[in-house]
Design a protein that fits this description.
Chain A: InterPro entries: Ribosomal_bS16, Ribosomal_bS16_dom_sf. The complex is a heterodimer of chains A (138) and B (340). Chain A has helices at 14-18, 74-82, 89-97, 105-137; strands at residues 21-27, 36-42, 53-59, 67-72, 86-87. Chain A is an alpha+beta fold and 138 residues long. Chain A folds into two domains: 1-88, Ribosomal protein S16 (S16 Ribosomal Protein, Chain: A, 2-Layer Sandwich); 104-138. Chain A is elongated. With 340 residues, chain B is mainly α. Chain B has 14 helices and four strands. Chain B has a four-stranded antiparallel sheet with strand order 1-4-3-2, with no helix packed on it. Classes of the chains: A alpha+beta (138), B mainly alpha (340).
């Protein structure tokens, strides 16, 4: 098979039935324009290998209305969960934000770090402005 | 140096002579957003049949050649047929026309208040833009599809209808519908189109672009109907699918005088009676009188806004009918036929 379909080739061969599988992102964009397919694949397979099934898409670049679009085939995702599939961290994060899985701890950690960073920046700005005022009064 | 200002002045006057500034539309949009829902009345069988009768179907207009750029023109095909075959093919054409003339539904403006599914303030700072999640499970209808939004402040809520429409169009595009509504529906362009009598084009395009329960659809259609009613351009929509909704709009808003006048002036008194029957059905009133004309007269007396003009038209119609009768009698007498 020279060009396997992006929608996946299904479970081919006997060894895939028992092989551990993972739902993960597969980069499909081009240079400077990331776009991801959400796919089921044999875990550990290289990203150039054909996937078992495509379950959705994820466009990480915000559109005109400042929205990022994610599409998910929940029926098939449920089926694969029933087959004992695992999730990569980014997909688990996305599914957590969608309200399908519990929210991933990584989401809470990065949210907390971002907030921390913002506060530090604000404190720095305040310091700089206070210093400027002090210099001006001298 | 002296000539420079003169040149500028010339340019300025030239610019002023062009009429670039359009006046804004004089019609205000009228929505079906009151307490009562027009849907059940519109889908009533009696009302539907009356609306279809008033459409006055002309098959030459229904099946006319339209240069939409979607089909190649083909040579006409002439066939010899027996009477039975002819009847069958006419029936087939009638069924086809019924499909083409299906009246766009008249329903109340929709109100969907998105429900909030969860609020998680610990997620504040994670996102710089919203994320929209769409369920693309096979075989789910556009209306039933699950579409949720994770806001930047961490709340998870259902998408409002504008977003739903945009997302459905992105993942499951409908033919002819654009992601952004075309500029022709903006006031200045819309008015230009209406002045060029392109009402059918406007309504057809609005039918594709919007759903019938969207406020934007009802704005555009109501403005178009008001323009037609004011300019007496009813012939533009006859034998099209939009005439039924036009009549329903006028009857619902108690503004049928122009249409009634048009019907009487063109001696279509039976249609006038059907219109009044529709009025009494929708507004639950009765107009007494045995003949068609008596009913029209009682309507003008009790419910009309243009009494004078309507009474004059009825009088004129009566005189024309009388003179026609006399002429017929004369012709009959000339042929030697006398009534017993």
């Amino acid at each position: 098979m020279l060009f396997p379909p992006a929608s996946g080739v299904g479970v081919t061969g006997g060894f895939i039935i028992k092989a551990p599988k993972v739902i993960r992102l597969l980069r499909k964009g081009c240079t400077n324009r990331p776009f991801y397919h959400i796919v089921v694949a044999v875990s550990g397979n290289h990203q150039s290998r054909p996937v078992i099934e495509q379950l959705g898409t994820y466009d990480p670049m915000p559109n005109e209305q400042n929205e990022r679009l994610v599409s998910l085939n929940f029926e098939r995702i449920s089926y694969w969960i029933g087959n004992g599939v695992t999730f990569s961290t980014p997909t688990a994060q996305l599914l957590g934000l969608a309200g399908y899985l519990p929210i991933h701890p990584t989401s809470y950690i990065s949210a907390w770090r971002n907030r921390q960073k913002l506060e530090e920046e604000k404190a720095k700005e305040l310091e700089i402005s206070e210093q400027k005022e002090a210099n001006a009064s001298q | 140096m002296c000539s420079l200002p003169l040149v500028f002045r010339n340019i300025n006057t030239k610019k002023l002579t062009h009429n670039y500034i359009y006046r804004s539309l004089v019609y205000s949009s009228i929505h079906y957003d009151g307490k009562s829902d027009p849907g059940p009345l519109f889908f009533n069988e009696e009302v539907q049949s009356l609306l279809k009768l008033l459409t006055r179907i002309d098959y030459n207009k229904v099946f006319r050649k339209r240069k939409l750029g979607t089909k190649l023109l083909t040579k006409p095909d002439y066939q010899f047929m027996t009477d039975e075959q002819l009847k069958e093919s006419i029936n087939r054409a009638r069924k086809k026309a019924d499909v083409l003339l299906q009246i766009p539904p008249v329903v109340k403006v929709k109100e969907i208040n998105p429900t909030i599914l969860s609020k998680d303030s610990a997620l504040k700072g994670l996102l710089t833009s919203k994320i929209v999640f769409t369920d693309i499970t096979f075989g789910v209808q556009n209306a039933d599809r699950i579409i949720v939004v994770r806001e930047t402040d961490g709340t998870l809520q259902e998408a409002d209808w504008q977003l739903r429409k945009r997302i459905n169009q992105t993942y499951f595009p409908e033919n002819g519908r654009l992601l952004k509504p075309p500029t022709m529906f903006q006031d200045t362009y819309l008015e230009n189109l209406l002045d060029r009598e392109e009402h059918e084009f406007v309504l057809d395009r609005a039918c594709i672009q919007f759903d019938p329960d969207e406020p934007e659809y009802q704005r555009i259609s109501s403005i178009t109907y008001q323009h037609i009613n004011e300019k007496n351009l009813f012939h533009l929509l006859r034998s099209t699918r939009h005439f039924g909704s036009l009549v329903f709009f006028l009857v619902w808003n108690k503004n049928i005088d122009n249409l009634l006048l048009d019907l009487i002036e063109t001696s279509n008194v039976n249609e006038a009676a059907q219109l009044i029957a529709l009025y009494s059905k929708i507004h639950n009133t009765e107009f007494d009188g045995d003949t068609v004309l008596e009913k029209v007269e009682s309507f003008t007396k009790s419910a009309s806004n243009k009494k004078g003009a309507l009474e004059l038209a009825i009088q004129a119609y009566k005189e024309v009918a009388k003179s026609k009768e006399q002429l017929e009698k004369g012709v009959n007498a000339a042929h030697g036929i006398t009534e017993c």
